[in-house]
Amino acid sequence: MKILKFTCLVIAAALTVALPQLVAASEATSDEAIHSRMVKRSVAFLREKGQAEDGSFSSKAGVGPTGLVVAALLDSGLKVDDPMVARALRYLEQHIQPSGGIYAEGSLHRNYSTCITMMAFARANEDGRYDKALSRAEAFVKGLQWDESEDRDPSDPYYGGAGYGSHSRPDMSNTSYLIDALHDIGRGSEDPAMQRALAFISRCQNLDTEHNDSEFADKIGDGGFYYTVAAGGESKAGVEANGGLRSYGSMTYAGLKSMIYAGVSQDDRRVKAAVKFLRENYDLESNPGVGQQGLFYYYHTMAKAMAAVGAPEFEDADGKKHNWRAELRKKLAKLQREDGSWVNGTTRWMEGDPNLVCAYSLLALSYCKPEK
């Protein structure tokens, strides 16, 4: 009997030590399983319901959605020889133009489509198959960037920016995609196009610095970013009574990520001010400033920017620390539909399209993998 009691005590003691570890391991496994299941269900949706016979995704909107889906699939662990990926890559290849741009015939979104396809090709280029295409595409998008070749000097609000098409008005979103494309093909802060883009990005920040001489620089001063400083300025979040262009979440994350990619130190006043705005507006329920509009674009841009910052936790203005990866995973799990897709009920900016929204969500999840 004494031996039995002693044995029971030993087992109980061992369980006391081991149980918390077993629970923690179970929770980690569960978290990984949830992430994996989200990705697999979304990939299955794209494979079974999203891809057209020609290999494209939502081609009525041009080449861009297919490029984003390819980038998302490759970042989700699929290989270039996966049948779905291979067909989509062939579709993109068919849209390489003599100019070096990659876009649908007659497209008004030449910069957007080319930059996104560059991001896809860069991920699929392990064997160098896209070296030539990427080199020509790089020259093409740099040729569209507003600079001295369009008689715009560094003092011009257009300078350094990129717009949707052939020399259309530059904006933060397209300039952010330009920076992403250059970053993904290995260009760094030393690249002149990066520095030109940084000049435009800096002028779209609500912050009065030596880098921002725009008429809007000191009207709000909250450190956030808006859509464009060019052509009289525009913010999708609206205008203050004094003419200031309101900052909003997705453009601020885009600005923060773009500055870091362009070599701006995290000790720089511009970066600190952007982080301060985001601390004051940390939110996973809405795109701060514009509500539900562009929510999944916001999630993707947020994840990418947070990963660029490199901190596992983000402290909001109230001092609360957020495991942003875990919180974003949880939010996306809650929003995923039964068929594996995601859709924004507020459909502006094409977020009623499940292919595009799946791409945004998978890209966000690629930055939100659970720690092992």
Note down, in words, how this protein is organized.
It is globular, with a radius of gyration of 23 Å. With 372 residues, it is mainly alpha-helical. It has a two-stranded antiparallel ribbon with strand order 1-2. The chain has twelve helices and two strands. A hairpin with a 5-residue loop joins strand 1 and strand 2. It has one domain (45-366): Glycosyltransferase. The two termini are 43 Å apart.
Summarize the structure in short.
The chain has 372 residues and is mostly helical. The protein contains twelve helices and two strands, in the order H-H-H-H-H-H-H-H-H-H-E-E-H-H.
Q: Secondary structure elements and their pairing?
A:
Layout: H1 2-50, H2 64-75, H3 83-93, H4 110-123, H5 131-144, H6 172-184, H7 192-203, H8 249-261, H9 269-280, H10 295-309, E1 314-315, E2 321-322, H11 324-335, H12 354-366
Antiparallel strand pairs: 1-2
Keywords:
1% strand; two-stranded antiparallel sheet; 372 residues; mainly alpha; Glycosyltransferase
CATH class category label:
Mainly Alpha
Q: Tell me roughly what share of residues is in helical segments.
A: 40-55%
CATH architecture: Alpha/alpha barrel
Shape: globular
